[in-house]
């Protein structure tokens, strides 16, 4: 197994960051196997979605509606409503596993690998790519 950790600057606002290019670079010299993408944070996730056509903004809107940043959360450290950020990984897992065929990630036409980070308290995230040969 081969691994690499990248750092992604997400800023101080909720964001969806496309990391497909970085993942593709990681597997380009491989043949067949599995790419595992993992975010070692309690308040971020990995989503496979379309980007650039509004779906990434729609996802952030849906997170805001389903998990509002108000005072309902028991987990109360950090910025107001931060407890919802700790609930996010129950809906958007902190990992994804994708097939790699002849050095290419087998994504659908409109699919991208995205880091989903609603937590403005941490402007920088790490993502671990791991490749397991088939």
From TrEMBL:
Transmembrane region(s): none
Q: Per its UniProt record, what SUPFAM superfamilies does this chain match?
A: YjbQ-like (SSF111038)
Show the InterPro entries listed in the entry.
UPF0047_YjbQ-like, YjbQ-like_sf
Source domain of life: Bacteria
Which family is this sequence assigned to? Answer: Belongs to the UPF0047 family.
Q: What is this protein called?
A: Secondary thiamine-phosphate synthase enzyme
Q: What species does this protein belong to?
A: Actinoplanes lobatus
């Amino acid at each position: 197994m081969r691994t690499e950790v990248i750092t992604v600057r997400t800023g101080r606002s909720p964001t969806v960051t496309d990391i497909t290019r970085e993942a593709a670079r990681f597997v380009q010299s491989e043949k067949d196997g599995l790419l595992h993408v993992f975010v070692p944070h309690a308040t971020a996730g990995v989503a496979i979605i379309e980007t650039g056509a509004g779906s990434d903004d729609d996802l952030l809107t849906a997170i805001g509606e389903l998990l509002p940043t108000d005072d309902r959360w028991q987990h109360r450290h950090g910025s107001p409503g931060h407890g919802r950020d700790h609930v996010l990984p129950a809906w958007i897992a902190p990992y994804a596993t994708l097939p790699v065929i002849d050095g290419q990630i087998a994504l659908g036409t409109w699919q991208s690998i995205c880091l989903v980070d609603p937590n403005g308290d941490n402007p920088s995230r790490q993502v671990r790519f791991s490749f397991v040969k088939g």
